[in-house]
Design a protein that fits this description.
With 241 residues, the chain is an alpha/beta fold. Helix content is 47%, strand content 11%.
Length: 241
């Protein structure tokens, strides 16, 4: 029978679950920098690099990575179309968009195409690694600060409550299939709250919140929380602050 010390040593040598990442950026220097940051983490490995969107899609077809770190502006096929193509494949790979924000005005469209979140390119290393882990778990990276900036930038594309198309206080037609509690959860998700924060607000368990989020996504035919945020603002359920 193995002693307690031997068991502890056996457990400590077990390999961590490795998150497999593809880097897609047309700047080789940036790819090298991101690779160095990510491969310094015990649980993340970079399995491929792409200099354009078309190459990124091919790598997804070949290797089915957990996460694709995707630049927006690339030659041949940009990050938006590449994200759309990856989702069209039915791939389980999650796309995390990289943007400089002020220059990449198409980041919002990339989220609509099915990306699981977005980060600024000057993100601190620890935040980048944390975001990759979050996306790999099937959750989304939706920073409230950046989300507000993007939504304000695209506010002119959102429904206007004063136009008569939507009565203030009424539930948008697209959301009528949701229960009152599911609407509450959708609003909280759009505000950038985590499952734990939503649970505290609604006085329920985190597991209950996860169930509500899952039902909201299923009923609305959405891939992830990011698309739920976009829909909440597009329908006028939540307005840019």
């Amino acid at each position: 029978m193995a002693s307690r010390g031997n068991v502890a040593r056996m457990q400590s040598t077990r390999p961590l679950v490795t998150i497999r990442v593809v880097l897609a950026d047309d700047q080789a220097l940036l790819r090298k920098g991101f690779r160095m940051i990510l491969e310094a983490e015990d649980d993340i490995t970079v399995i491929g690099e792409a200099a354009d969107g078309a190459a990124a899609v091919r790598l997804v077809e070949l290797y089915e990575p957990d996460v694709v770190l995707m630049d927006v502006r690339m030659p041949s096929l940009d990050g938006i179309e590449a994200t759309r193509s990856i989702n069209a494949l039915g791939s389980l790979s999650n796309v995390l968009i990289l943007t400089t924000f002020d220059l990449d005005e198409y980041a919002f469209s990339a989220l609509r195409a099915g990306a699981s979140g977005f980060l600024l390119k000057d993100v601190p290393p620890d935040e980048l690694a944390r975001a990759i882990r979050t996306v790999a778990r099937g959750d989304a990276v939706v920073s409230p600060r950046i989300t507000r900036r993007l939504l304000q930038e695209y506010a002119h594309q959102l429904p206007d409550l004063s136009s008569g198309d939507q009565v203030e206080g009424a539930v948008p037609v697209m959301l009528e299939g949701l229960t009152a509690r599911e609407l509450e959860v959708l609003v909280a998700v759009a505000e950038g709250l985590s499952n734990i924060e939503i649970a505290e607000r609604l006085f329920v368990s985190e597991a209950t919140v996860k169930s509500h989020v899952g039902r909201v996504l299923a009923k609305l035919g959405l891939r992830n929380r990011v698309q739920a945020v976009v829909l909440a603002f597009q329908t006028g359920l939540v307005r840019p602050s």
